[in-house]
Amino acid sequence: MLVGTPTFVSFILERGEPGQLDSLRLIVVGAEKCPPTVRERCAKLAPQAKLLEGYGITECSPVVAVNPPDNNRPGSLGQPLPGVEVRVTDVDTGQPLPTGERGMLEVSGPTVFPGYIGFDGPAPFREEGGKRWYVSGDLVRQDTEGFLWFEGRLKRFLKAGGEMISLPALEEPFVRLYPPTEDGPRVAVEGVETEQGRRIVLFTTEPINLREANARLLEEGFHGVMRLDEVRQVEKVPVLGTGKTDYKVLRQQILEQLRTPAAAS
Length: 265
What we know:
Elements: E1 2-4, H1 6-15, E2 26-29, H2 36-45, E3 50-56, E4 63-66, E5 79-80, E6 85-89, E7 103-108, E8 125-128, E9 131-142, E10 148-153, E11 157-160, E12 163-166, H3 167-177, E13 187-194, E14 197-204, H4 210-219, E15 230-233, H5 247-259, H6 261-264
Parallel strand pairs: 1-2, 2-3, 14-15
Antiparallel strand pairs: 3-4, 4-5, 6-7, 7-9, 8-9, 9-10, 11-12, 13-14
Helix pairs in contact: 1-2
């Protein structure tokens, strides 16, 4: 068995040679979306292995759901582990939503932690019906068979014109156009909400301008508020130790630019 993020697993698969990974039977990935390239390399270099996606949170010890080997749904987060309860609630009201609707993922069960040590902020739980539900901050939908499908982090959404704008959805077409390499991601989309409005920026190492970028979004079916406000060329997209894009750094760069006199004018 091999367990890791798609980024780390891709590094292993890139360096593997035919025959070296024949003993693998399961490859389990999580923490980020698994790109098609990882699945293709897995099929080529580890032909006996099944690649399964899962979902976890540190506060939930840490696995919440995973695809079962005998009922794998590529692209989904899988089904909750035995003994782990999940529900999907309305972001504004906290009320449970019908099957298939997007909302906040909440988790209850023996794997959920009791709270943060020495933390004075608001509790990350919702108490209801004699149960304590951990509010994950992740948006999902759950199908009729209990499989969870990731819809994005709540903090990766902006509101504009009364609509919820998914930053990962805007990023996806450019990830397909410029997939990550061994040097890391080549594109990332981040945005902020201010009193003056929203600012959504495509950070990229590739030669594409704002008009071309928004034209691509139109081709993908995005309209209205689902567009970019700026394309910023960078030498390298910042990453965390896990290899994932460091959106916190990108967000800070946008805010710093908005604070300058030139940006304000």
